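Sorry to interrupt, but I need a hand with the structure work. It will help me judge whether the discrete encoding reads sensibly. Write everything out right here, beneath this request:
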Amino acid sequence: MSVPLGFPRAVGAAHGHGTRVRRYNCLRHLETGDVDPRHGYRDGVTPSPAARRRAVVAVLAVYLAGVARLTLWPEPAPDDTFDLVRAVLGWLQDRGFPVTYAGTEAVANVVLFVPFGLLVGWLLRRAWWAVALAAATSTAIELVQRTMPSRVPTVQDVVLNTLGAVVGVAVLLLARRGARTRTGRALPEEDPARAGG
């Protein structure tokens, strides 16, 4: 069979066109967040929603273990740690900063549960449910602390922990809204039913 003289050039042109099309499709998928179901990753680069969910669950497990260690250990912290905190607060007070140990502890209780709101809110269908779970978790911690002579459980801790979860969920929802505003679409891992929190 005779081969036309222009055949190799035509094949090369077609191959080049196909390469450009594949490159364009790859960039388009990266921009839109489409998932390739064959390997569970967006174009082999960005983790799929399922992979991200597993990662968030792993981070949540580590975080909860840290909270348990911090709040349920018989001794709150070594004396040297408290001495260091008091020294830092004293240094700040000497320079006119209106900080107190009680105020610092209150802020710490809020900050402690901000990740709870972020992580649990991300995993739940309705993000604000994370606030109720945070209140229940904090209440359980305080009840356990009542059995520990070295701990001082208070209702204030529950309120502040819950406030921290509220802050975390609010940050999560603001981030989602910002992503939708910038891209014109929901985040790849976001279920439309969850978007409203």
About this structure: The radius of gyration is 26 Å. The chain has one domain: 49-194. Residues 33-43 have pLDDT under 50 and may be disordered. The chain is about 70% helix and 0% strand.
